[in-house]
Amino acid sequence: MKIEIWSDYVCPFCYIGKRRLEKALEDFPHTDKIDIEFKSFELDPNAKRDTDLTIYEILAKKYGMPVEEAKRMSAGVAKQAAEAGLQFNFDTSVPTNTFDAHRLAKYAETKGKAKEVTESLLKAHFTESKHIGDKKFLQELGVSLGLDTSELEEVLSGDSFEKDVRFDQKEAKEIGVQGVPFFVLNSKYAISGAQPPEVFAEALAKVWEEENEKPKLQNFESKNKSETSYCSDDCCE
Fold first, then answer.
1. For the segment 86-139, what is each residue's pLDDT rounded down to a tens digit?
2. In the chain, where does DSSP find H-type helix?
């Protein structure tokens, strides 16, 4: 089974949704048969790499609310994160542009490190309050995960993997992704948002049954077996 996940590294529900999916996978008997692919999505492609604004000020401006209300809203999200086993530190988080982080993830995918980089970027932003738009930090993160120093420098200093990021974004528009996280199972079922683990569990079971346990074709035969003619390896009847 293939699961494609469109997400962004500054999207709190993307991290929460990832954990809830992982929780469902813990009890899924065929987890070793699942291939997960992370897809690029930018919540705000025009976000500045460096800003003096806090996340609360940015949210207040975006949604037209007082800063104090933005703080209360964020506290509610942090509570949901805690229930999923995550620690969110909005007070010290660093708002930034995530395009280079997505390019790093695409490079990491070619080295079999996509899952590690995705988890590390989410943790760096929400828990460790790191500047994930800073190229120096991105290189340090990549090196810490075993990626080649010189290759990382070349990727981050240029425009490598830009087309890969744009392809994911284009695909998201084509299939109607309005927000993230957005999960697609076997190009057949979509789950939008950080749904409870039981929703993921139900979807996993349903897709697995349909794709692997039920016969692909239903057999319709004549009731009169004498009218049925066919050839096998042994004979023709």
1. 999 999 999 999 999 999 999 999 999 999 999 999 999 999 999 999 999 999
2. 12-26, 55-63, 67-83, 99-110, 114-126, 135-144, 149-157, 162-174, 197-208
User: Could you tell me if 117 and 104 are in contact, meaning their C-beta atoms sit under 8 angstroms apart?
Assistant: yes
Amino acid at 53: L
As beta bridge partners, residue 183 has 5, 191
Is-contact 8 41, C-beta < 8 A?
A: yes
Two tokens, residue 32: 């070793």
d(CA 113, CA 62): 34
Q: Smallest Cα–Cα separation from 126: which of 166, 161, 177, 92? A: 92
Contacts of 29-37 spanning 24+ positions with Cβ under 8 A: 30/1, 30/208, 30/212, 33/1, 34/1, 34/2, 34/3, 35/1, 35/2, 35/3, 36/2, 36/3, 36/5, 36/115, 37/2, 37/3, 37/4, 37/5, 37/114
C-beta atoms surrounding 225 within 10 Å: 8
The answer to whether 55 touches 95, Cβ cutoff 8 Å, is yes
Residue 139 tokens read as: 């290189």
% of residues, the chain, pLDDT over 70: 89
| pTM for the predicted model, two decimal places | 0.89
Q: Are 37 and 31 in contact (CB under 8 A)?
A: no
Q: What is the mean pLDDT of the chain?
A: 93
Sign of CA dihedral 119, 122, 125, 126: negative
Q: In the numeric block, which tokens belong to residue 165?
A: 């990021």
- Residue partners of 120: CB distance under 8 A and separation at least 6: 141, 144, 145
Which is it for the CA torsion 104, 105, 109, 115, positive or negative? positive
